[in-house]
Amino acid sequence: MTETLPLTGERTAPGIWHENYWFARHDAAYRWITANLSSNNSLGTGRVLDAGCGEGYGAELLRLAGADSVTGLDYEDTTLRHVRRVYPQINVVQGNLVQTGFADATFDLITSMQTIEHLWEQPRFITECARILAPQGTLVVSTPNRLTFPSGNWYHTRELTAVEFTELLEPHFEITHALGLHHGARLREWEQQHGPCVDAQLATEHDDWAPELRQLVTSTRYDDFEIRPGDLDESLDLILVAKPTGGRTAR
To answer: Can you give the pLDDT at residue 45?
Structure first.
C-alpha cells in the first residue's frame, strides 16, 4: 500500500512504519473474522457492513474473504474519499453510526472494530446494529480493554471492561463468543527481555526508539497476536460475537 491517510491518532492504517504494531493488532481481529466466520456462510454469501470502516483495509479483507457485498460506513469525508480510491469495490456510505439510514434487516454480518469507544451514544449504536442486522445475522464488535489500554486517548469517549462491554450488548444480543486479543509467543519473549512493548513505544518519539524496538515494531504481523477465550481482564482488546435475540427496536 503506497497511499496512506494522514496520521491523526484517531485511526491506524497500513504503510506507516511506526504504527505497524497497532495496525497489526487491528489486522489480527479482521483476520480472525475471515478465518472463523466464512466457514458458516456469515461471509461467503452475505451482505456485510463494516461500521466505522476507517482506512478501509478491514472492509477489503472481508470482501476478499468472499462476501457478496461489503459496505463501509464512516462519517469523515477525507477517509471515505480514500476508501473509494484505494478499495474501489467497497460500497462507501457516509453517515452516522447511531442513525444509519439503512432499512431493517439489511445486513447478514456487521463488523465494528475499535470504533465503539469513539462514540458518545454507545447503547444507541448497539440498538441500531440490532435493527439493521438480519434475524439470523452476526455482529462482531471489538474495543480496547480499559483495564490494560494506555490512558489519555482523547479520541475515546468511553473505554470498556469486559463486563461493561457484555452488558452493553445484552439487551439486544446473545453473545456467542467472548474473546480477548493477547500478545503471541514472539511478542511475549521480547517483553521478557525488554519490558512492555506498548510502554516502550509511548515513552519516546519514534525517531528516538532503540534499534530493538524499531525492529520489533516494523516486523510485527497479525499472527504475532492470539485471539482466544478466557483471561479477558488481562487481554489487550476485547472481541464479542453475537446474534440478535429477536424483536426489533423501532426508530
So the answer is: 60
**Contact between 237 and 57 (Cβ < 8 Å):** no
User: What's the grid cell of residue 249?
Assistant: 427496536
Residue 175 bridge partners (DSSP): 242
Alpha helix stretches (DSSP H) within the chain: 20-37, 57-64, 77-86, 122-132, 162-169, 185-194, 197-203, 211-219
251 vs 169: which has the higher pLDDT? 169
| Distance separating alpha carbons of residues 214 and 216, to the nearest angstrom | 5
Which residue in 194, 158, 142, 124 sits closest to 12, CA to CA? 142
C-alpha cell of residue 245: 435475540
Residue 109 and residue 43 in contact, taking contact as beta carbons nearer than 8 Å: yes
Q: How many CA atoms lie within 13 A of 58 on its CB side?
A: 35
Strand order from edge to edge, sheet including 173-183: 91-94, 69-74, 47-51, 107-113, 133-144, 237-244, 173-183, 225-228
Put simply, whether the predicted model's pTM sits higher than 0.85 gets the answer: yes
Domains of the chain: 17-182+227-244 (3.40.50.150)
pLDDT band at residue 95 under the 50/70/90 scheme: very high
Whether residue 15 has pLDDT greater than 90: no
